[in-house]
Amino acid sequence: MNQQTSTFPAIQTQNLIKTFDKVVANDNVSFDVRRGEILALLGENGSGKTTLMNMLSGIYFPDSGSIEVDGKEVSIRSPKDAFGLGIGMVHQHFKLVDVFTAAENIVLGLPGKLFLDRKASTREIREISERYGFQLDPDKKIYNMSVSEKQTVEIVKVLYRGADILILDEPTAVLTPQETEQLFTTLRNMKADGKAIVIITHKLNEVLSVSDRVHILRKGKSIATVNTPETNQQELTEMMVGRAISLKIHRPLVEVKEDRLQISGLNCLSPEGVQALQNINFTLQSGEILGIAGIAGSGQKELCEALAGLYPVSSGSILYHPEGADTTDIVGKAPKEIRDMGITMAFVPEDRLGMGLVANMDMTDNVMLRHYDKGRGPFADRKRSRGLAEGLIDQLEIVTPGVSTPVRRLSGGNVQKVLLGREIDSAPRVLIVAYPVRGLDINSSYTIYDLLNEQKKRGVAVLFVGEDLDVLLELADRILVLCGGQVSGIVDAANATKEEVGLLMTQVPEEVDIS
Amino acid sequence: MSRQSVSNINEPRVPFLRIARRHATPRRQAWLIRTVGLLAALFTGSLLILALGHNPIAVYLDMVDSAFGSRIGFNETVRIAVPLLGSALAVGLAFKMKFWNIGTEGHILIGGIAATYFALFHYDTLPVPVLLTVMGLAGAAAGGLWGLIPAFFRAKWNTNETLFTLMLNYVAFGFILFLQAGPWRRAGTDFPIIPMFEQAARLPRLFGIHIGWLLILSLTVLVYLYLNRSKQGYQLTVVGQSENTARYAGMNVGRIIMRTMLFSGAIAGFVGFIQVSGANFTLDETTAGGVGFTGITVAWLAHLNPLIMVLVAMFIAMLERGATRIQTTFMIPDAIASLLIGIILFFMLACEFFIHYRLVIRNRKGGH
Q1: Does A84 contact B9 at a Cβ distance shorter than 8 Å?
Q2: In which domain, by residue range, is A365 found?
Q3: Which helix (H) or strand (E) holds B339?
Q4: Do B6 and A84 touch (CB under 8 A)?
Q5: Are A157 and A101 in contact, with CB atoms under 8 Å apart?
Q6: How many domains does chain B have?
Q7: pLDDT digit string, tens, across residues A423-436
Q8: Do A355 and B230 touch (CB under 8 A)?
Q9: For A228-241, what is the mean pLDDT?
Q10: Do B15 and A61 touch (CB under 8 A)?
Q11: What is the pLDDT of residue A204?
Q12: Is A171 helix (H, G, I), strand (E, B) or coil?
């Protein structure tokens, strides 16, 4: 891997244009990344980051404009071409074979002899790991790995194939703060080794801590390239959004609280017979936002679905305390049974288009999902849904051609507004939201926070599963931390630190384990 | 290390041919594509006809004339279209739920068997209107129950409905052969034939065609309303789009699957009744005659819209009628006539691809 120290940037694009039908995804994008630097590519959703990276990695072909690698104009027509040029992409969603070892995944698909020289490849993988400070066991199977280990495999995979220009698409979205720091250390090592690194993210603090320069995209256009030491969060936000915006998340205080849901000794087994939730105990109060933190796959999904009656519970109880009425145990009840008992529990699942909504249906039909069976007779009342959908468009400023457009055509933020709007409209007493701002831009995210706070002020008990600890610490009243299907701690959000929560995410303290 | 391989791709080149997705195709453009598709089909077919030494235009005109040129021809076309439309309705109901039911053929046969039982053994004990009603209900009930079997197994143990429904077709078919050869064989003959129905068990005529056409047309309106307006139609559409969402919304997915297949089978079973009582006046192994499968094509070409199925069923009936006619007037072999139908249907189905995708050829500047 000899690094000729050229005066040319590793990659330089000039006036790249890419359109999809009438949508201009990239409009004259010009940026460059040099060897031995980390460039952060910053932009909101739909600003064209992914389109740009897909053109560099050979998935899309630009309509016009040029891409230069080391000063020479190139044509990248397939991912294979990109690899030939030393460009390696680490996708947000891992593409690994679960039953193979790390080493097998890394050499998979490479040309070679009929038989693998496992020893040689293992040796080379160890060498790469040592050089950049990765902690990777080449013989470990993927299904035994944590998310961060899998990501390491992906990065080593592109390095093993000889990439010296690395593109990482939102690599920190799935990591704990500690793991993020570890990743940044390895990125700095690679930078010192003369590699060119592009990191796509919308987390501003990470941009500031790891990058040398920042290139900002807005609505498909290149806005500016700034040197990281010369900028700050506020300035970056303004360039990204296009106007001044307050980054403070409010945490209104509600005086009168009462217990709403009391979960005790909750155990759940996954369909494969694995203990998904183990002895969960907590109380959810009215007028509070209880944040749920944890590494991806620590039982968040199972917990939400168990509360909503969608996941089989093997033991334990979920007691619902209505205002001024008797307590009822809703454990093991189907969603319809819970609703028929007069309990309004709203649930915004993580998989918006696969569970919360029907992607191919229009807004009217999606809004109808909650009350299609109301009213007498065999026919459904579409008029009411239509009115409701139109109301939501006005209230939440949903951008859509109309109520008859399939929701899959809407942007992520608008899809979430449809879903959350429908759930809130049912006037819930308990509101469960899972990753409500995932993939949303700053504006939409703050709209969602406002909506949740408004519900909280009305005395709704809100359970908020989140991934961004900064947001959880600012928005939630208390934070419950899950680790491996157990509650590893409940902290007061106003007084807790990020490190404290991060630590709870990775281990269950002994005393909790016993109780 | 792998830099050397780069040199050959240093010249910027655009791929010669790409497939790109169209986002929203305007209705007019979609119809334009279909028209071009039909013309292309007719052109391809005409090469075949020319090779046989005939005038393509004369052949095509003769096909249309056979179907719509005379009262008798038109009645015959409708007779062919009735079971096609009926089975398309049955198929459409299941397909809307993404339940890949290819057992409509069998449902028709089973419905026919149930109706035939009353036609053979109760024609003289019941008044005519009652007899016909009982036959229709029996056909629908039997077809419905037959459809319920694969749905039950799918709902309980997630079995593959495509294989299941296909296999049940052979069971139904075998059952008819058994009835022909043994219990229901016409007295005094060695041929495996079931007796012709008495007059009482035959459907009356309306405007020269058995009244089945009116029954199926009414059913079309009912199915249209069921799918587009009713709560149950909404439920089965949601189940088809995403079982996960259906469960999330508190729907009982298994029950919806079973209910929908009960109705799908019942419609097909009713078609079986219409065929034995209106068209053939007896039951034999050709009672369904493949309409259960052609119904899939009809449903698909109509995008599962029951009202459009009426037009598509008439179109296909016209092709079949025309194919029979040109065998006699032009002495075109049966196989070639079938080939012509195949070509036309192939092009019509291929149109749907070009409505959703377009080919982009190199050297056309300006973002395309």
Answers
A1: yes
A2: 355-426
A3: helix B334-356
A4: yes
A5: no
A6: 1
A7: 998 889 999 999 99
A8: no
A9: 88
A10: yes
A11: 83
A12: coil
Q: Name the least confident of A25-34, A440-449, B158-167.
A: A440-449
Query: Based on the number of CB atoms within 10 Å of its own CB, is A309 exposed (0-12), middle (13-18) or buried (19 or more)?
Result: buried
CB contact under 8 A, B241 and A335: no
User: Token pair for residue A285?
Assistant: 């109060």
- A75 with B241: Cβ contact below 8 A: no
Amino acid at A273: G
Domain assignment present for A274: yes
Are A361 and A222 in a shared domain? no
Length of chain A: 515
Tell me the ipTM for this assembly. 0.80
Query: Residue A446 pLDDT more than 50?
Result: yes
Residues of chain A with C-beta less than 8 angstroms from the C-beta of B229: 379-380, 382
Out of A365, A397, A426, a domain closes at: A426
Summary mean pLDDT of chain A = 86
Residue position matching structure tokens 């029907």: A358
A4, A369, A419, best to mutate vs chain B, most B CBs in 10 Å: A369
Do residue A83 and residue B2 have CB atoms under 8 angstroms apart?
A: yes
pTM value? Answer: 0.78
Nearest CA in chain B to A162: B1
Residues of B with CB below 8 A from A359's CB? 241-242
Closest to A378 measured CA to CA, from B75, B231, B20: B231
* pLDDT greater than 80 at residue B173: yes
Taking CB atoms and an 8 Å cutoff, what residues of chain B touch A370?
A: 249
Confidence label for A107 from pLDDT (cuts 50, 70 and 90)? confident
Backbone angle region of A100, left / alpha / beta, with phi > 0 → left and psi within -120 to 50 → alpha: beta
Q: Which of A125, A175, A132, A170 is nearest to A150 (CA)?
A: A175
Q: What is the DSSP letter of B276?
A: I
Number of domains composing chain A:
3
Q: Residue A463: is its pLDDT beyond 90?
A: yes
State pLDDT tens for residues B238-284.
999 999 999 999 899 999 999 999 999 999 999 999 999 998 999 98
How much is the pLDDT for A478? 94
Shortest distance, CA B107 to any CA of chain A (angstroms): 26
Place of tokens 């008990």: A461
d(CA A345, CA A430): 5
